[in-house]
Amino acid sequence: MTQTQTPKSDLGGRFTLPGTSLTPNRLGYGAMQLAGPGVFGPPRDRDEALAVLREAVDRGIDHIDTSDFYGPHITNQIIREALHPYPAGLTIVTKIGARRGADKSWPAALSKAELTSAVHDNLRNLGLDALAVVNLRMSAGHHHPVDGPIEEPLNALVELKRQGLVRNIGLSHVTPGQVQAARAMTEIVCVQNQYNLAHREDDALVDGLAADGIAYVPYFPLGGFSPLQSSTLSEVAAELEATPLQVALAWLLQRAPNILLIPGTSSVAHLRDNLKAGSLRIPPEQVARLDAIGSGAEAQGSALPRNG
Ligand SMILES: NC(=O)c1ccc[n+]([C@@H]2O[C@H](COP(=O)([O-])OP(=O)(O)OC[C@H]3O[C@@H](n4cnc5c(N)ncnc54)[C@H](OP(=O)(O)O)[C@@H]3O)[C@@H](O)[C@H]2O)c1
Predict the structure, then answer these.
(1) What confidence score (pLDDT) does residue 296 get?
(2) Which keywords annotate this record (predicted)?
(3) What mean pLDDT do residues 42-51 have?
(4) Looking at the domain assignment, is residue 2 inside a domain?
(5) Ligand 1 mean position to 267 CA, how many Å?
(6) What is the domain extent for residue 127?
C-alpha cells in the first residue's frame, strides 16, 4: 500500500441509513467549498477542486454532500466532471429548499414547482437518473432553524420520491418539532443541522436520532467559514499530537454512532489532514475537557454565515 492510500476502516467505521442499503463510511466530504467565494460562481482553482474530489474517492470516501444551489450549479458540475461515471457505492446526498439570488443571497425555494425544478437541476448537473438522498432544507434566511409547517414542501418531495426521482428523504436546518412532524409523514433517513464542539443546541436531537438509527450529519463540523478556535481544543490537540481540526472531527465521531461527517475543503492538503481524524481516538479524560467547550464561555470563532 502506498502512503497516499487510506484503508476504508480508517474512515470512522460505517453507518447504515435506515431502511436502505446505503452504508457509507462515517467520514465523508462536503462539497460546498468547491464553488467560488461566497459559495457563488466558479472556484478560484478548478483543477484543485477536481483533484480534491478525486483524492477523496481514491482514499475511500463514499459519501459526498452537495447542493445544486452551490455555485449555483457549478459545484454539481465539478462533481460530475471529476467523478462521473460514479464508482459503485458512492452516495451523493443533495439538498433543496433554497435558491441563489444574483446578489449571492439564499432565499427560500419551497414551492412544489421550485422543489421539482431543484430536483431536476440536481439530476441534470450531477448526471444521475435518481438522487440517492435529498435533504429538504427549511428556514432559508434564518441563522437558526425556526418552527413552521413542513407538510407542504415535504409532500412535494414525497411525490418526487414516488415518481422515482428521489430514493430517500432527509431534512436540513430543522427544529426537533419539524423532525417529529416529518417522521410522522414519511421515512426520514438523515438530519443535517449545524453542530460542532462549540454549537451543541442539537444535543438532545442527536441522541434521539441515534436511538432510532437515523443519521445525524452536522454541517459546519469545523466551524464553517471561521474554523473553530479554543485554547482547550489546542491543548488537547497538542497532547494527542494532532491538529485542533482533526480533534474536532474525531470528537464528533466519538460523540454518537449515528454522526456522519462531511467536512468541507477546497484543498487537497486539508482533505488529507481531515482524513486522519478517522483513526484518531480521544481518551475519556480529554473528551470530558472537550465536552466542556460547548457549555459556553470558552468557545470562540464560528462567526457563521446564514446559509448553505
Ligand atoms: N444544510 C446546510 O444548511 C448546510 C450549511 C452549510 C454547509 N453544509 C454542508 O456541510 C459541509 C461542511 O460545511 P462547511 O464546508 O461549510 O464547513 P466546515 O467543514 O466546518 O469548514 C470548512 C472550512 O474549514 C476550512 N478547512 C477545512 N479543512 C481544513 C484544514 N484541515 N485546515 C484548515 N482549514 C480547513 C475550509 O477552508 P479550505 O477550503 O481552505 O480548506 C473552510 O473554510 C459543506 O461542504 C456542505 O456540504 C450544509
Answers:
(1) 60
(2) Oxidoreductase
(3) 98
(4) no
(5) 11
(6) 24-192
Ligand 1 atom closest to 264 (CA) = 15
Q: Is the dihedral of CA 193, 134, 167, 55 positive or negative?
A: negative
Ligand 1 atom nearest to CA at 273: 31
Q: Confirm or reject: Cβ of 36 under 6 Å from ligand 1.
A: no
**103-113: pLDDT as tens digits:** 999 999 999 99
Phi, psi dihedrals of residue 253, rounded to the nearest 5°: -60, -35
Q: Which among 29, 70, 195, 219 is annotated as catalytic?
A: 70
Q: Which atom of ligand 1 is nearest to the CA of 266?
A: 39
Does residue 257 register a pLDDT over 60?
yes
The tens digit of pLDDT for each residue in 117-162 reads 999 999 999 999 999 999 999 999 898 999 999 999 999 999 999 9
| Greatest CA separation for the chain | 53
Q: Which residue is closest in CA terms to ligand 1's atom 16? A: 224
What is the per-residue pLDDT for 307? 53
The answer as to whether 125 is a domain residue is yes
Asked whether 43 lines ligand 1 (CB < 6 A), one says: no
Total count of domains within the chain: 1
Residue in 80, 73, 75, 82 with CA at minimum distance from that of residue 30: 75
Please tell me if the CB atom of residue 26 comes closer than 6 angstroms to any atom of ligand 1: no
Q: Is residue 283 situated within a structural domain?
A: no
| Catalytic (active site) residue 219 | no
CA angle, 46 then 11 then 161, to 5°:
70
| Partners of 92 in the β-ladder | 64
Structural domain includes residue 251: no
pLDDT score, position 1: 38
pTM over 0.90: yes
Chain CA centroid to CA 265, Å: 12
